[in-house]
From TrEMBL:
SUPFAM superfamilies: beta-Roll. It comes from Microlunatus phosphovorus (strain ATCC 700054 / DSM 10555 / JCM 9379 / NBRC 101784 / NCIMB 13414 / VKM Ac-1990 / NM-1). Transmembrane segments: none annotated. Gene3D superfamilies: Serralysin-like metalloprotease, C-terminal. It is found in: Secreted. GO terms for cellular component: extracellular region. This is Calcium-binding protein. Residues 1-37 form the signal peptide. Keywords: Secreted, Signal. The keyword Secreted applies. The keyword Transmembrane helix does not apply. It comes from the Bacteria.
């Protein structure tokens, strides 16, 4: 039986870098011995080498030493022929598992051992090195390789292997198959080569605060821990990079140029983490704690985890899926200084937020707050019926880039009611308007005075009440009743009120208002409204009502005007 050995030049380069020439190792491992009926061990004094050979069964071979320095196999149960190997007269220990699912281990409980060459052979083998500069060869089968201490070189071989270098600067080659190359806390700077197949590099962080980054380095990927105790990974031939930051307030930044090289999955774990993806399609997990997650370029998936988290989006980024999960979570979406159209709608229990520029579609679930910074430009913002979703508030900030002041451009914000009977209030003053009464409230900040900016309430279907009588903010108010018998009340400013289909009551208020009842038997009230009780008399109606065509003659026809049950502002009572 011939031992499968690395045939590509990078494997030989790795051995040379480790300080070991493939030729210097000799024919003792280039051609595997024949299996015998039982495990055997022999010592070659001239080569200063201990060789242990398994059989074709599942072998457990443990090489250790006693306190005096003698090297023993399986606690002395397997005799060593050819002499007594010791740590003083032995430079190399080589173990051949051959057939079967073997476990080959260097046990240094009683002290350090010479370097090891471990060959799994066929089968699903587990190879564990010692503190020397070891070489581990998984060969055929799904193998698990752990270098432990020393500058080690690991070769997975064929099939799907798991390789962990351990302490010191190691080199791991997955070779054929879908391999996993692992870095754990306490390990050092390593070189990882995935080889053929779909290979995954896994980095496990510690329990404290850590700062990580991943950047493109030509056709390779460089992964760094910046603080504490810096280390780096030189990655080639790997398809996936997974970071489990674990505990602590961790940060990760993915650089540009990674999209063509590797897929990122970053799990912040416990702690208040700050995660930023690269320019590929990343998976970002906030974990427990109050996290800030930025997808960056590419179409990303963010699972924010437990805690009050925030997902940030900036121009140039992609269409993302955001799962808020437990806690009160927010999406912060930043527009540009150009003309843009934004829309928020419900799709079942999920929320779809879109931006026309770039054809951006954000798919949200378990997100409670949505903050849109529209910035400059003539922007259009539409907030649909969000019933059945987790959104409780959407904030639309119309300030110029830099915040704090209106942008001077013409912005329109439309809020759409439900298909039921809504009672909607619009209130506010100065630079803030608030729309309440729906499943999600809508706040509009830093609006320009009318007629530059407008807030439109579209009551949609149903017998609705929309009241702006507590609104003294600068933006113009537009109310559309939609289908149904609606009561629509304007603000303290100059309003546009449209009853649309149905028998509606339109009350303008003290400003210069435009009232249009639309189809149906509508009642339009404008100017000083003096109400004595809830039932208005015919004389009061004849004096104060104007129909939508502008005529002054009013025929009431025996109908009574019933004033809706709401509190009129003091200025109009």
């Amino acid at each position: 039986m011939t031992v499968q050995r690395p045939s590509h030049t990078r494997a030989r380069r790795a051995l040379t870098v480790a300080g070991i020439s493939a030729l210097a190792l000799g024919a003792t491992y280039l051609s595997a011995p024949q299996a015998s009926a039982a495990t055997t061990a022999s010592y070659q004094a001239s080569a200063r080498t201990l060789t242990v050979i398994g059989d074709n069964n599942a072998n457990t071979i443990v090489v250790s030493r006693n306190a005096a320095g003698a090297i023993i196999v399986n606690g002395g149960a397997i005799a060593v022929s050819g002499g007594v190997p010791t740590v003083a007269n032995t430079d190399t220990i080589q173990i051949f598992g051959l057939g079967g699912n073997d476990v080959l281990t260097m046990n240094e409980a009683n002290g350090a051992l010479p370097r090891a060459l471990l060959f799994g052979g066929t089968g699903n083998d587990t190879l564990t090195g010692g503190s020397g500069g070891d070489q581990l060869f998984g060969q055929a089968g799904d193998d698990t390789l752990l270098g432990r201490g020393g500058v080690d070189v690991l070769f997975g071989g064929t099939d799907n292997d798991s390789l962990t270098g351990g302490d010191a600067d190691d080199q791991a080659f997955g070779e054929a198959g879908n391999d996993t190359l692992i870095w754990n806390p306490g390990d050092d700077t390593d070189l990882n080569e995935g080889g053929t197949g779909i290979d995954t590099i896994v980095v496990n962080g510690g329990s404290g605060a850590e700062e990580f980054s991943a950047t493109a380095n030509g056709q390779r990927v460089r992964f760094d821990r910046v603080t504490p105790a810096p280390f780096s990974l030189d990655i080639g031939g790997g398809e996936k990079l997974q970071l489990a930051a674990n505990g602590g307030d961790d940060s990760f930044v993915g650089g540009n140029g990674l999209a063509a090289l590797i897929e990122l999955t970053v799990d912040g774990g416990e702690g208040n983490d700050n995660l930023r993806g690269g320019d590929g399609n990343d998976i970002l997990l906030g974990g427990a704690g109050n996290d800030v997650v930025v997808g960056a370029r590419g179409n990303d998936v963010a699972l924010l985890g437990a805690g009050d988290d925030r997902f940030d989006w900036d121009p140039g980024e992609g269409s993302d899926i955001v799962e808020g999960q437990a806690g009160r979570d927010r999406m912060l979406f930043n527009g540009s200084n150009g003309d843009e159209a934004f829309e928020t709608i419900a799709v079942g229990s999920r929320v779809r937020f879109t931006r026309d520029v770039g054809n951006i579609v954000m798919d949200l679930n378990d997100v409670e707050d949505l903050l849109l910074n529209a910035k400059g430009g003539n922007d259009q913002v539409k907030v649909g019926d969000l019933s059945g979703t987790d959104i409780v508030r959407q904030t639309v900030d119309l300030a110029a880039d830099g915040g704090g002041a209106p942008d001077g451009a013409g912005d329109d914000v439309e809020v759409v009611g439900t298909n039921g009977d809504d009672v909607i209030q619009v209130k506010g003053r100065s630079a803030r308007q608030l729309v309440t009464g729906l499943s999600a409230s809508v706040a509009v900040l830093h609006a320009d005075p009318a007629p530059t900016d407008r807030v439109t309430i579209n009551a949609a279907i149903g017998d609705d009440v929309v009241s702006g009588n507590e609104l003294r903010a600068p933006a113009g108010l537009v109310i559309r009743g939609g289908v149904g018998h609606d009561v629509l009340v304007g603000s303290q400013g100059d309003d546009e009120i449209f009853g649309e289909a149905g028998d509606d009551v339109l009350i303008g208020g003290p400003g210069r208002d435009r009232l249009d009842g639309g189809p149906g038997d509508d009642i339009l009230l404008e100017g000083e409204i003096l109400v004595d009780g809830e039932i208005a008399t015919k004389a009061w109606v004849a004096k104060n009502v104007r129909v939508s065509d502008g005529s002054t003659a009013v025929t009431v026809g025996g109908k009574q005007l019933i004033v809706p049950d709401y509190q009129l502002p003091a200025a109009t009572r």
